[in-house]
Amino acid sequence: MEISYLQALADPAVFPVVCGLLGLMVGSFLNVVIYRLPLMMERDWQCQCAELRGEEAPQSETISLVAPRSRCPACGHAISALENIPIVSWLFLRGKCSACHAAISVRYPLVEALTGLLSAFAAVHFGFGWSALGAILLIWSLIALTFIDFDTTYLPDAITLPLLWCGLLFNLGNTYVDLSSAVIGAMAGYLALWLVYWGFKLITGKEGMGYGDFKLLAALGAWLGWQKLPLIVLLSSTVGAIVGILLIVLAKHGRQVPIPFGPYLATAGMISFFWGDQLAQYYEILI
Fold it and tell me: Residues 121-126: contacts with CB within 8 Å, 24+ apart?
């Protein structure tokens, strides 16, 4: 019976649908991670600072990724299971809280849809097997990191470090690249941005990026190998520069206001993961 279930799941017509539906559900959970993980980090920092000062830790509601239950930030209405169905509930409620009718950000269903679509795409791209599983885990992690960094400029170690080790774990069997390329990629990814950070700081006296960026590029190197790092850096720097200029010129974004680099690294990493070889061949043709 178990074999028949696996055979049915491995069907090319079934596997992407299952992964897409799973991605929708995980996308709903990622919305919780994106909102709560930075709060958990900040509260932990506050407790550590209070302990160093010899003071009592500030009293606040205990919060985790699973408790308390999700609720409307405007009125405190607890979100029921029927109100938490990915995309469908938001559409049914017309983007408003059922209790106070406060607007619910469109980003919630967008994150769910993005997670579901990319999970289904990974299933189509790799087919049934460990490669698809790893790709889906990478996608979920990069989506969470992208929106957390966009909101807070944090790239939590709770995601970047396990992501790095998972990349090495999957490549123990040469799933995406050979293990030596993965190990060198992790080291080179970290050191590349570490050198940029210190070079910029020595020249300007300012910090140009955070340590989370080093760890994210190291994680991408562990998954994709050192060979893809130049492409990731090139893509992320180009897009980041264009967006940064547009924000300054069009949105009057202050030059002193930091622009998170993590979303561009994550996007470039995902593009390189799926289409890096094709882009490299296209580049060789051009030159």
Answer: 121/16, 121/274, 122/19, 123/15, 123/16, 123/18, 123/19, 123/20, 124/12, 124/16, 125/274
